[in-house]
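job 3f2a | input accepted
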Amino acid sequence: MFYRFWRAFLVGLAALLFGTEVRGREHLPPTGVYIVAPSHRSTLDIPLAAAVTRRRLRFMAKQEIFNGPVWIWIFHAVGAVPVDRAGTDRAALKAVEGALLEGEPVVIFPEGTRHQGPELGPIASGTAYVALKAGVSVVPVGIGGTGTLVVRRRGVPRLSRVTVVVGPPIVVERVDGAVKRSAITELDATLRVRLQAVFDEAEVRSAQRSAGRRASDQAGEGV
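job 3f2a | predicted structure (223 res):
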């Protein structure tokens, strides 16, 4: 119940402020579980990742944000799993595997933390490891427009238009036993290419929509 409220409020707020557009929802598997693997430029990417489906999602989140009893309660209520980025954090990976086995899709940001610029940051191995152990598809999701949420025109701040692009899933076969480093490296490379493609598409679309809004504003000022 709390997740539904949280999602409805934050996704709705993002849509109101940034005109969120989601493209490619048809690529999400209609049934079963999968990993949503979004690009990461802003904290706003968290509710934007939730915008791709009404299903309850579980999020892997850095342990640092679990600070204080109130925040701990909130993040656990929305299904977040704390991750220690300094180590392998096998307990967190086990928790994510458990969520998948319980039938809940999981959100993992492959870059591990926020990055800026047109190129993705290094891909951490956690996404590939979990996908291979659980045998679930990885759905790349590009989020465009969150790198610079506020732009200025003639000194007046304008909010950018945000576009989310869902790419075709990467089908992953389950690995029984130990996962070889070569398998992780191969899946990381595939994910990087596919995620970069949808991120580029999302950035272009976001820029086009933001430019269209500015042109509309200028036309209105000229009337």
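job 3f2a | The beta strands are 21-23, 34-38, 58-62, 80-83, 106-107, 137-144, 150-153, 156-159, 163-166.
job 3f2a | closed
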